Structures are given as structure tokens and as C-alpha cells.
Amino acid sequence: MKEFEKKENLQYAQRIGLVQNHFLRNLSLLYRPHNFLRDNEEAMATYMKEVCEAINSRISADVPNSESYKDILRQIWRTVTSKHKSSFYFNLADIISATVKANRNWEAKSGTKRTAKAFSGSFEAEQQAREGEQKKPETVEGWLAKLEETDRMIASGELNRGMGTLLRRIPCAALSRLGYEGDTSLEGVGETPKEHLPNDKGEINMELIKAGHTAPKFDPFDLAHDDPLPENLKAPLPDFNQI
Question: CB within 8 A of 214, min separation 6: which ones?
């Protein structure tokens, strides 16, 4: 298919964004974190970062575009979920195993025999292999920029609020490690409604999720929804004296 042949030259940030939106988002919606992750912001941020790196570092640098990359992510998701018996987040070993298998299948299908080098190692190795790529932000200013970009995406709707709030934990945890004492709260967004949070057992309200995928229904005979026409669009009443 043509969408799988188009060349986009995906950058590191774009690939990580695809993992966040098409793998981590599903994970956060359908599964629940272990207690030690839920109660520890830094641990949650580290887990999410490691999932992104585990997947991205093992997907070939020759993947031509976002559609092909998303197709590989779907294969990874299907492989992991087919074997995962728990309601909790996946372990990294299963994710890595599924990623290696999906990438091997893609290389066999696309005829790519050489092993990808740019994404075959750690974050630092990948950065050294790609010219012109920005370095990982290790300064307060760098992580603040990442935080600001995440907030912008939440405000614009590119990231939904739940996933965006989850992803903010990565730069927030890094800023905390660097000793930053400024305000990192998300302005303009109130606290999450109680019914949207997991209960004491860690279970999420699936009715809310199902309701979000259900089209609203209206009674066509309900007069409460019968909006009258503006005066200038109403037909004039006939003058019975002229009949």
C-alpha cells in the first residue's frame, strides 16, 4: 500500500511520540499501574520512559514513515496482550520480546537485511548516530521546554488530558532530580474528577470509557430540543380579510 511506501525520515521525537500515542495511551486506558508505580511519580515517569526506549531502540531506523511505524506498534500490542493475563501494566521483558519479533517480521517483509544501527542501542548511542539531532535535555531549561511543549499539546487537543497529564511526569521527575523548585502544575486544568480515578482496588470506571465511544441519542419527539425558528425566517400569517 502506498501509505507504507512513502518516505518521511522520522526523527527521534516523532518516533517517541508515536509510541506514546499508540502504545502507552492504550496501556493507560485499559490496564492499571502497580501500586508502587501509582504512588511514586518518579517511578511512573521512569517506567514510561523505559517503555518508549525499549520499543523505539529495537525498531529499525529504516522504517520509512509513521504508518509503517504504527503498524509495527500494533503488532507489538497484539503480541503482548495475547500473552498478558494480568490487569496490571506490562513488564519490560514482554515488551522487548514482542518488539524484537515485530521488527524482525517487518525486516523480512520489507526485504531489509541489514540490522538497524541508529536505534540498536541506548538513547546516547542513537543520538550519536544521527546528525543534527538535538541532545537529550539535561538542564533545567531543557526539561522546562519539554514540559511547556507537553502542556501546549494538551491545550491544543493533540494530547488528551489524561494521557498528557501522565506524560508530564517525565519532565517533572527530571526537574525534581535537578533541584528545580518552581511551579510545574498544569495551569487552567482543575483536579481530576473522583469518578475518573481508580477506586481503592485500582479499578477504573469502564462505563465512562464506553460512554465516550457511544454516540448520543436524541428523541425526535422531545419538544425540549425543538428550537423555534428566528422571527425573520418564519412564514407570515395570512390576512384573512383579503381572502
Answer: none
CB atoms within 10 A of CB 182: 8
SS3 at position 199: coil
Closest listed residue to residue 99, CA positions, set 122, 125, 77, 124: 77
- Nearest alpha-carbon partner for 107 in 57, 159, 72, 56: 72
User: Phi and psi of 88, rounded to 5°?
Assistant: -95, 170
| Grid cell locating 44 | 511512573
CB atoms within 10 A of CB 131: 5
Q: How many residues does the chain have?
A: 243
For the stretch 46-69, pLDDT in tens is: 899 999 999 999 999 889 899 999
Task: Give SS3 for 53.
Answer: helix
Instruction: Give the phi and the psi of residue 10 in degrees, each rounded to 5.
Output: -60, 135
* CA distance linking residue 45 with residue 79, whole number of Å: 24
